[in-house]
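COMPLEX REQUEST
Ligand: NAP
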Amino acid sequence: MRAAVAMRSDERDPLACLELKDAWPVPEPGPGQVRIRVAASTINLHDLWTLRGGAGASETFPRVLGCDIVGWDESGREVMVTGAFGDPDAGYGDETLDPRRKLISEDLPGAFGEYTVVPARNVIAKPAWLDMQQAACLNVAWSTTYRLLFTRGQAQPGERALIQGAGGGVSTAAISMARAAGLYVIATSRSEAKRKRALDLGAHEAVATGERLAQPVDIVVDTVGAATWQHSLRSLRPGGRIVTAGATTGSDIPLELPRIFYRQVSVIGSTSATRSETLRMLSFMHAAGLRPVIDSVFPLERIHDAFKRTAEGDLFGNVVIDIASR
Ligand SMILES: NC(=O)c1ccc[n+]([C@@H]2O[C@H](COP(=O)([O-])OP(=O)(O)OC[C@H]3O[C@@H](n4cnc5c(N)ncnc54)[C@H](OP(=O)(O)O)[C@@H]3O)[C@@H](O)[C@H]2O)c1
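STATUS: Structure written out below.
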């Protein structure tokens, strides 16, 4: 099969480690697994960090990356794949908390090849109201954001939410879902063009990164990390909460403990989403008429250009890889 394969990692030249192969072996499903013919995927920072050999990245190479999987099962049904692959009965409450859970593309092959295999319980039907490219944006960016906002963050209608870094897949999903759920949404961006797009997407206000807010907020969604953390802490009301699922600009940040304990702020981590959260999110998106924002679409043969677009950071929404058409 055709596949883009990570052969190794290199911090300084990560894209040199990604090779296009025309005759990579088609993976065989093991017990409890099914094979999917992949239609589309997206580029996520997890893929880039794996190629860079970043902290937490698995060192097993060669590997097919790609954490969003949509396509067809062996009966031809249109499907999407949920998760993190974890055991919901591991004893900690849900599959994302299973200490042995794996992200897609860590143990099993990911989506940047024509076929992949996944645990059968992570496969759900793709709703007909989403096309394959839209559905490809949902597992990593949207499901993560749904859990982050509503399960972990307990976002409530009428609350004021600050969403840092308007352009990413997570922040575009957060703006859309928080607005549809009845929150007052303030987005930040370094770029005037992205601030305008954030307003078009549903934000009530869009301010420059780091700009002091007129009034404090109840909840902050911060996946930018080092560049915005201090602003996130300073923008919260006493008793407010920051929900984090990533640190694009780095995680080496002063925690400012006095600000956290005197002002009784909660810092909440969130990762991935459960199968049932993904199903609820799809119902929410359908009821509210929400669709993901697609920044650009690249064929598998141009995956290096797609990675460059992601690494440059000037995107708005998700970068999609079209695997099935050629
Ligand atoms: N834990 C999980 O399950 C999970 C799932 C999905 C994603 N994540 C993580 O969440 C993070 C967000 O991912 P993403 O793919 O949605 O978006 P992304 O490509 O990481 O970009 C997010 C935003 O970061 C902002 N940014 C970048 N450099 C900046 C800087 N120097 N100063 C200020 N802002 C800066 C940009 O905002 P502007 O350009 O608008 O200023 C951009 O829109 C990543 O770290 C990713 O790994 C985690």
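REMARKS: The chain has a mean pLDDT of 96. The pocket of NAP is lined by residues 44-46, 140-141, 144, 165-171, 189-191, 194, 209, 223-224, 227-228, 245-249, 271-272, 313 (CB under 6 Å).
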